Structure formats: structure tokens, C-alpha cells
Amino acid sequence: MCTLKPAAMPKQGSDKIPKERSKHFYVILLTTSILLPTATFAQSGSAGDSGLFSLPGILITITLLIIPVVAALFLLAVKANALFRNIQNKKDAEEATRFAAYLKTLNVEQLEALQNDRLHQDYHLNNKELSGPFSPEDSRGLLSSINERANIRFIEAKRKAIVRPGIDPALSKLILWFLGTATFWLVFGTSVGEYIGIKFVAPDVDQVSWLSFGRLRPVHTNAVFWGWSSLAMLGLGYYVVPRVSNIQIHSLNSGWWSLILINASVVLGTSALMAGINNGGGEYREYIWPIQLLFGIGLVITLVNYLRTVANRKTTEIYVSNWYIVAAVMFAIVISIVAYLPNFQNGLGETIIQGYYMHQGVGMWFMLFTLGLVYYYLPQQLNKPIYSYSLGILAFWSQIFFYTLIGTHHFVFSAIPWSLQTVAIVGSAGMIIPVVSGTTNFIMTFRGAWHKVAGSYTLPFFIVGIIFYFTGSLQGTAEAFRSTNLMWHFTDFTVAHSHLTMYGIIAFFLWGGIYAIVPRLTRQEPPQITVGIHFWMAFIGMMFYTIPLMWGGTMRGLMWMEGLPFIESVTMMAPYWLWRAIGGSLMWVSHLVFAYNMYQMINPRKTVNINEEAIKKLHANDYELVDILDK
Amino acid sequence: MMDFFNDYRKLYFTALGLFVVLTMLVAIMPAISNQNNNSPLPTEEALSEAALAGKALYVANGCVACHTQQVRNLDMDKVWGKRPSIAADYADERRTDLWRNTATLMGTERTGPDLTDVGNRQPSAEWNLLHLYQPRAVVAESIMPAYPWLFEEKAELVEGDVEVPVPDAFRKGVKGKIVATKDALNLVAYLQSLKQAELPGAMAAPEFLYKREVKAKAGASGGEDMGLDGAALYAANCQSCHQASGEGLKGAFPPLKGSSIVLDDNPEVLIDVVMNGYDARPEFASMPAIGTNMKLSAAEVTAIINHERTSWGNSARKVPVEEVQKIMDLLKQTAKK
After folding, report:
1. What's the CATH code of the domain at B75?
2. Does B161 share its domain with B241?
3. Nearest residue of A to residue B64 by CA position?
């Protein structure tokens, strides 16, 4: 414990820290002593100031420059290998053509001879030539239960997706496009995030206006919100909504339109933000209205599509997933309209709407929709029904009731009316009801099926999602209280919180869903080892990202409360920002691995078997017309 | 009951209805009421044209990502303004144009300092320009982005050009003179305009809550520094120009180390400079009336000047607070005349 204290203190002026503050330190030390390694390393991270190459910022930048170069070289090797295989395949195909042509020239006698040959080749002894028709006595099972695969397995083989009746290839294609573009935005958005995270340790890494911190920050948040999370949710939704309604999706065409519109809105929004065109600085509504309008139209189209599908369903009940999903789309449209209507946005009106908007966007769009997805994918992956339908319904209504109230807790102690702040804080406390009932429901669904976790590569994602659904959401409640707001508001603690939730909950649930259905759509499994790498790097990375920020954020808040000079709180944060960049790098690499897995699942794998191909060609030439007529 | 929820119209209309009603109650109605029932303070100055253009730049470059503009009614926020921000402070914020929404710029992150009152705290144009060109030239520990694209390089100065005295270490191979563009000047004009308006006479400011417990002062009246931390006050009020080393910046901010004004046995001029600013030496930037702007008390001024007089090798006598108080009263009287 004692070794930790100096490490946690700012480098400069640590001798001047009043006793009272160190008392605070000890309180936190006691409660979060897990941080020991983090904080001890933190000190050595900030110590380097001799020479350019001992600067952490420079080192990180260099490492990060090397990563894409190595990645590019690797990609080159992979591509070259693929090219070579292609050439080989082509040669084999030619050989098959020649072989087929040769087979055609054979006359009846030659064919007979070949048939005979085959009979001879296929002839096998029946192993009873010596023993006769009687089976040996084997009372101890020495002969009948031989394990022929006695090699040691280092990694437990995970269960493959069950082969299901085929899914309409047209719908498959739409879903894969949603998920594919979502993956692109994940990689893009987090590359930007990674870069601006580095700017905290190396602020002069570039000095280009388009890449400056203030412009890139909203690029990051909006790309991962509207690009990655929203597109992935909608894609998974296009699978769930028709399936639990037991009917085809109402219109594939409108699905394609929302895909195009939403992607267009993120492309345009990103360019506009980088060019310095934004809506005025309110978080997550930085896109100006003509751009966000495209997103809104995409949502309206989706809503109509989902609603029609539910309306025509062939089940009596509306499965609870469709409560959450359709409601989320409706609410997102309401939220966007409220946020962009200019009629009540002068003065503090803007702030009140901002608080409402940013939090409803998170809670009523991302969270509600994703919960709907979990109510489908989790039981599906566990192959058992959800524990309690009623708990799901309770969570649904209480979420609407409490979540809607909590927006303004982002502006506690600000100039907005005190009573409105109090309502938001009470609403935040009320969130315990939906969160606890939702978590209970999910955990109880696992009951009796925990053994399936070891054999599944999707369930770990759901477990992490559930854990952070509980802890992350309740952390939000804790942050809303006035006493904690004092310490945590305006610090990096809130940044950690938003990553624990938008990443720990939403992204992990989405990954679980994606790994659950894409192999079903394409009949191709991702490499088990890279799914594992993706999972662990994302998870560990997030821990390295959030824990130092929470710790450092707390310290920073305490320093402000002590009235210490602001700049001291900046130097104090340096090691924590470095840890954040390291954690962020792990998360970022895991997304590259995820993109690779997506590629492996979607890209058709093909090899040429000369014999089979030759036979196919024979048939193709001889029976082509007959085939068509038959159909 | 389940029949009710099996009708998709009833189910979704109920959910939507509940959400919309709550939205009206917690968002739209409070927003309308706050928009209509607050008007700007009569003492508030409208933004000049240059400041308005500067505000557009502030918005475009996403400064709000790191800088708040709200003084909360908390004791810990006292450093950012004289009083907590109130609804009237934002009442004049309106929609920017057809494309862009209102920018109250209250912010949610304080990675950098709050800027509500920065026009009082740091009004020096020279400092702001240099800081925008390269923040680390004035605050070594700063992690703020540099904005060199707001400046241009010129071989010769033309009438009206504002040159920025960038120290050699930060010129990065720029040979000519570094001149502020119109954009940079506008942005600085905006920052200078950020001042908390005085409340009209009858109006009481909201209280700062959660007061920090004042530590029991040992030997209360006797100590010269009244238990205040001179180094911390110096860091908060003076350091960004005169630097932690007390050496200032060549061509911009004069050194305090070895300065005859600082070391003078009679602290009258020193206190005058702290309280009312100084612009007697053309080779340096003009100093704002930091003490008056920040409403520094006699005890705070004492702590600051004693820190300056006894640090970096300076060794002048410590001035007792009573003497400082006397000089400050005198200065106030002469200022009135």
C-alpha cells in the first residue's frame, strides 16, 4: 500500500499536497487496491524525459506507425499467397477440362475397361475371411470402444453453428451488408479514437486543421454511434424481427434504402466535421440537420418495414424482442425530431434538450434495441427459453419510465433549474429497477446451461455484456448523485463510463449476435483462435482503458476540490492518459482481428478438386438443357 | 392483459405515448419555459463582429470538447468565475443560422480550463496568440492542440500585421515572421469577450455550495501569508506568462527573477503592477490588471508577491499583509481620483 501512494501523486509539487488530500487517497486506496500494478507502472511511464525516444508519446507513435506497416506487409503476403493459389487453381481447372475432353473421346470398350478397373480398385476384404460370421467375445469393451483420436487437444473445440434450414439468400445479403459496413465504421471510428487518444500524450503528433483534436473527437463518437453500433443493430434486427414474427421481412428494398441512407449520413457527417462544419457542439448531434436527416429517413423506412412485418406476423404474441426493437426505432425518431427542431433551443432550452437528447440516444436507442436483440440471441445460443417473460416486460416499461427522466443529470449544478436536476437524479436511481430485472432475467436464463459457455465462442461476449449491463448502468446511477458529481463530473471518469457502457455492453452484445448468426448465413465458421484473440484483446484493452481513467479522473476531481492549480491536475493525468492509449491500442487491434473474422465468415472459400470438377463439367455439357427443362 | 399487448397497434401506441408524454414533461416544456422566461442581463455586452467570427471558429474547431463554459454553484468552481452561472447568462444564445443550432457551449468535459471568465482572467492578446500558435511555448505541461494554421509566415511585416514572438524552440524551421491571421485575431477577440457580466444591483448571486473546510490557521494573524499557498496562487494567476521558473519568455513576458520591481524593498510598484497592470516597456507585452480582474484579496496578493520575492534566487523581505492592505487602499483611492 505504501508504495502506491507516491505513485498516485502528481510528479510536481507532491511535497506540497495537504494532509487532507492524502486522507482521500487512502480511502480510495482501500476501496480499489486492485489498481496496484497499474499505478506503480504509471509512475515509470511518466518518468522519461531524457532524449526524444524515451518520451512515451513518441514511443507510442512509433509503435503505432509500425503496426500498420507490419499489418500491410502481412496483408501483402496473404494476398500473394492467394494469388498463387488462384493461379494453381486455374491450372488445375484447365487440367480438368483436358481430362474431361479426353474422357469424352473414349469408346464403349474403353469405358467398360475403366468400369472394371474401378470395380477392382474398390474391392475390399470384408475382414471376416478368417473369423467367419461370428463376432468376438468382448465383455470388457476392449475392441468396441477404442478412442482413435487420442492426441491431446490444447484448445477446446468450440461448438459450430447448427446447420439450420437455409435463410433467404436475399435477406442474408442485406444483413451481411449491414454488418459489413458496420465493421468498416468500427475500424474507422476506433482508428480515429485511437489517434485522438494518442494526442493526449503527444499533442504535437500533427498540426493539421482537419486532424485536430476538437474536430476528430466528434468524428470518433458519431462514427461508432451511427456507423458501427446503429448499423450492426439494424442488421441483427433484420434477422430477429421477421424470425420471431415467423414471416418474411416486409420489404427487402426498403432495407437496402436505410442501409444506403445511414451510410451516406455517416460519410457526409464525417467529412463535414473534419472540414469544421458542425451543429454547434452538442454531443452526438454534431452532424448538421441535412446530414442527420438522412439517418432519420433511414430510421423511418426501417420502422415502417419492421411494423409491417410485425403486423403480418404468423404468431399470436409479439415476442418481447420486437417490443424492444420496434419501440427503440420509434423513440430514436422522436429523439431526433426533438433534438433538431429549432423551436425551443434558445438559451438554456438548448442545454435541456441536449441533456435529454444525448442520454435518450444512448438509453432509448442503443440500449433498448440491443436488449431486444439479447432477448433473442441469448436464448437462441443457450438453446433454452428466456427465464421470465414478465421480467422482460417489467424491464421494458420501467426503462421507458425512468430512463426518459434522466437526461439532465449531465448538467447537475449547472444553471438549469434545480428541480429538473433533482428529477434527473431520482430517475437515475429508478434505473435500478430495469437494470436489476434485466440482469436477473439474463443470468437466470443461463441457469443450468453454464456448461455451454466453455464450448461456445459467442456466449463469452454475452456474459461480458451482461456484466457491464449491470455494473456500467449502476455506475451511471452512482455518478448522478450530487455528492459524486462533485468529484467525477467534467473529468475522464465520464469518458471511462461511456466506454464501459457503449463498448462493454453494446459492442460486446453486438459481437455476440454477429458471431451467432453470420456463420448461419454463410455456412462458414470464423477461425476459433482469432475469435478468442478478438474477445480477449477487446476485453483486456477495455479494462486498461477504463480503470486508469476512472482512477485518474477521481484523483483529478479531488485535486479540483482541493483548489490546486489546474495545470497540476493535467500533469497528474499524464500516466493515466498513457494507459488509456495502451488499452485503446489493444481494443483497436482486436477490431482488426474482428474484421478479419468477418472476412473469414463472409468471403467464400473455394478449392478445386480435379476429379469432381471433371465430372461436373461432363454433366454440365451433357445435361445442361435437360436440367433447365426439368425445373 | 396479454391480448392488449398482442395487438401491435395498442402496444406500440402505448409505449410511444408514454415516451412522448414524458418527453414533453422533462424536455420540451422545461426548454420552452426556460427559453421564454429568461432574458439577458442588462450589463451583458453584445459580442463584437470580430468576437462573433471568433465564436464560429471556436465552434468549428470543437473547442467545446475540452473547455466548458459554465461556473457551477460549487465552491470548487470559484476559480472559474466570481459567481455561479445563471440562466440569464445564456439567454442571449440563439440559433446560429439555417444550418446550425444554438451554441451555448456549456460543455461536459474539463480537459482544459473553464472559459466562462477567461476574458478577465487572461485578457492579454499577445499571450493568447502565442498560446494558440503553440500552447507549450507558454505552458510547458499543456496538452492543448497547436493551431498554426491560424497564422502565416511573412518575410516582411506590413502595416497592421500582428507579429507573434514565438521562441526559437517552437518555430520548427519557420524562418520569416509569424503573423496572426484575421481568424486568429477573431478567435482571441472572442476569448477576450468571455467575461461574466456583473449582476444588476438588486440581484443576489446564487451561493457557492459544498464549501471547502477552511483549515485551522496556525497562529492566524501573525503569519505573513495567512496560510495561503503563494506558489499555488502564482501558478493559477501569473505562471502562464511569467513561467514556473520566473524567467518569463524572451520578447514576450519579462522575467521576475532578479527583477528590480519585484526585489524593491518598497513593494508599492509591484503591488500596483499586480493590481492594475503594466505597459511601460515596449519590448514586452502589456500586462493586464490581473489583481483587479480577479478581485484578489490583500492576503492573496501578499502570498503571491512574497512567493515572487523569495523564489528563484530572489531574496527580498517578506511583506506583511497589513502593509499590502494599506498600499492597496491607497491605490484604490488614487484610481478613483
Report:
1. 1.10.760.10
2. no
3. A281
Q: Please name the residue ranges forming H helices in A316-458.
A: 320-340, 348-360, 368-382, 389-403, 418-430, 432-446, 451-454
Shared domain for B128 and B242, answered yes or no, is: no
Is residue B4 one of the residues assigned to a domain?
A: no
What is the interface pTM, i.e. ipTM, of the complex? Answer: 0.87
Q: Report the greatest alpha carbon distance in chain A.
A: 105
Domain residue limits at B154: 49-193
Distance from CA of B330 to the nearest CA of A (A): 30
A369-389: average pLDDT:
94
A277 reaches B (C-beta below 8 A): yes
Number of domains in chain B: 2
Q: Please, what are the domains in chain A?
A: 169-602 (1.20.210.10)
- Give me the residues of A, 151-210, that contact B with CB < 8 A: 199-201, 203-204, 207-209
Q: Which residues neighbour B198 within 8 Å (Cβ) at sequence distance 6 or greater?
A: B41, B43
Closest B-chain CA to A208 = B149
Please identify, among B176, B193, B210, the residue that sits at the C-terminal boundary of a domain: B193
Residue that is last in its domain, among B193, B210, B245? B193
User: Is B205 contained in some domain?
Assistant: no
Using a CB–CB cutoff of 8 Å, tell me whether A22 touches chain B. no
Residue B216 lies in a domain: no
Q: What whole-number distance in Å separates Cα of residue B66 and Cα of residue B111?
A: 5
A290 touches chain B (CB under 8 A): yes
Contact A307 B60 (CB under 8 A): no
Give the tens place of pLDDT for each residue, A129-187. Answer: 787 777 778 887 777 776 666 555 666 677 776 666 677 889 999 999 999 999 999 99
Q: Are A408 and A416 in contact (CB under 8 A)?
A: yes
Query: Cα Rg for chain B, rounded, in angstroms?
Result: 25
Q: Which residue in chain B is spatially nearest to A487 when comparing CA positions?
A: B76
Question: Quick check: B130 and B165 in contact, CB under 8 A?
Answer: yes
Alpha-carbon gap: A347 to the closest alpha carbon of chain B (Å): 4
CB–CB contact A280 B100 (8 Å): yes
Per-residue model confidence as pLDDT tens for chain B (337 residues): 667 888 999 999 999 999 999 999 999 999 999 999 988 988 888 899 999 999 999 999 999 999 999 999 999 998 899 899 999 999 989 999 999 999 999 999 999 999 999 998 888 898 999 999 999 999 989 999 999 999 999 999 998 899 998 888 898 888 889 999 999 999 999 999 999 998 887 788 888 888 876 654 444 444 445 567 888 888 888 888 888 888 888 878 888 988 888 888 888 888 888 888 888 777 788 888 888 888 888 888 888 888 998 889 888 888 888 888 888 888 888 876 5
What cell numbers appear for A515 in the block? 458471431
Yes or no, beta carbons of A407 and B16 under 8 Å apart: no
| C-alpha cell at position A85 | 493459389
| Local structure of B138: helix, strand or coil | helix
Same domain? For B164 and B116 the reply is yes
Does B263 reside within a domain?
yes
The reported pTM is: 0.80
> Are residue B234 and residue B176 in the same domain, yes or no?
no
What would the grid cell of residue A385 be?
427459453
The minimum CA-CA distance between B61 and chain A, rounded to whole Å, is: 5
